[in-house]
Amino acid sequence: MNLYVYESDSSAVIVDYGIKFADPQICGIDWIAPDTAYLESIRHKLKAVLFTHGHEDHIGGVLRMLSLLSLPIYTGRFTAELIKHKTRNEKSFPQITVIKDGEKLTFEDINVCFFPVSHSIPDTSGIILEHNGFTAVHLSDFLNISDMKMALSGNGVNLLLLDSTNAVSRKEPHTEDEVQRELVKIFSETRGKVFLTTFASNVIRLNSVVIAAKATGRKIVIEGAAMERTVSIAARLGYIYISENDLIPAKTAFNEEPSSVVYLVSGCQGELSSALHSIVKGERKAINISEGDTLIFSSRVIPGNEINISAIINSTARLGAEIVQFPDRPVHISGHASVRELKRVITDISPEYFVPIHGEYRHLAAHAGLAAEAGISGERCLSLETGDQIIFEDGKPAEKRIIDSGRAYIDKRGDFVLNETELYERKRIARDGLVLIKTTDGKLSLRTYGFKLTPEQEAMVLSYAADSDKTQGCFDEELVLKAVKRFFKKTFNRRPLVELL
């Protein structure tokens, strides 16, 4: 759910606008997006949106943004294609400019320069922003940077914002080449079908799967809309080298030798609507997992998805297939910089001030420690959380403010957007149920949802409500509501949502 704003007195640019995948326990909410209240308050200043790369936590909110703020977009080639696909059904197509490495842009008094970094998805960029001699370097997701000094062209850096994802781990990661060799080994060892699931946006990994499949004589079946879209775009742009001869449709693969097929499937986080979930549950006529097959999770577990993934693993084990995961075998590497690389970047850039970004609080705290090891003293490391705004004057941090930074909760079924109050109501109904009260001709009746009262309990509720203030044969509805709520809290320790019909 990344969203950053760089703002001067007269202009502002947005860097990324992503979503967060909701905890499965949040009552039918699929995505969480940043609230736009602050952006709308500075609408007159906003000049552009700069996207660093095409992962959903960086571009997933683009449709919501475009519906509220009509702004031009600047990004890399692959990200531009992903955004075009997302906006293909919109009435007004967004203005998208594909930037080149090292290209410089000016938005009134803010100068911007994109520079290339490596990540698990093509065309990922760091961004240099300059205003009246003040220079900030924004490095969100990245694995490594080949030449940071060349990207900066010798400019001094006042502020560095740096990816904190792997700041908690001192272990040196594997390389993608090692992952590729391990996939070849597994594909060769497995006598049955191979099912591999990873993030659909991990183009580097998808290409490794293609290479391993070719090396072992397996044809590839692609399952899942997001996976099909990514492979198609990446192949068209030359980031994945795959031909029609390498692919086979599921209905044809069903009759092939199991050892000659690999299924590239979306759903590595156990999403209930994913291709992997439907395959494991036996809902695909042409695809089945059976004894002797292997399921590879070539991805990390996003916190909150453990239950869904565990259910997939248990169901697969019941079918007799082998499950391969990281770190048991080197089938995945992070697309984020290691501790060694983070310290190298801090040392090479040598900023006056440092802000750890992109991670949970423990990652940010660990990164602040790394910065200290790299020579950034405590007062020069600025701790920021969601909603924090830091004001620089004369090159130094002068003030810290808190801005509106709520969340929008999105239910994809109908594209409903809920605020905090509406989400609370939904959670309340899920936890404590719903009670509907009806007053007819001086009599009360009720209906409950989510739990069931015995006749005796229902009579107790109605009697308690009837004892509330009654004037000229008509109930005071507000008093009835308060009485019913009070009864449920006092008698059952429940707080159902109580409404009048």
Describe how the helices and strands are arranged:
Blueprint: E1 3-7, E2 12-17, E3 20-21, E4 31-34, H1 37-41, E5 46-50, H2 56-59, H3 62-68, E6 73-75, H4 77-86, E7 96-98, E8 104-107, E9 110-117, E10 124-131, E11 134-139, H5 148-152, E12 159-163, H6 176-189, E13 194-197, H7 203-215, E14 219-223, H8 225-236, H9 250-253, E15 261-265, H10 275-280, E16 294-297, H11 306-318, E17 322-325, H12 339-349, E18 353-357, H13 361-373, E19 388-393, E20 396-402, E21 407-411, E22 416-418, H14 420-432, E23 434-440, E24 443-449, H15 455-466, E25 470-471, E26 474-475, H16 477-492, E27 497-500
Parallel strand pairs: 2-5, 5-6, 6-7, 11-12, 12-18, 13-15, 13-16, 14-15, 16-17, 23-27
Antiparallel strand pairs: 1-2, 3-4, 4-21, 8-9, 9-10, 10-11, 19-20, 21-22, 23-24, 25-26
Helix pairs in contact: 6-7, 15-16
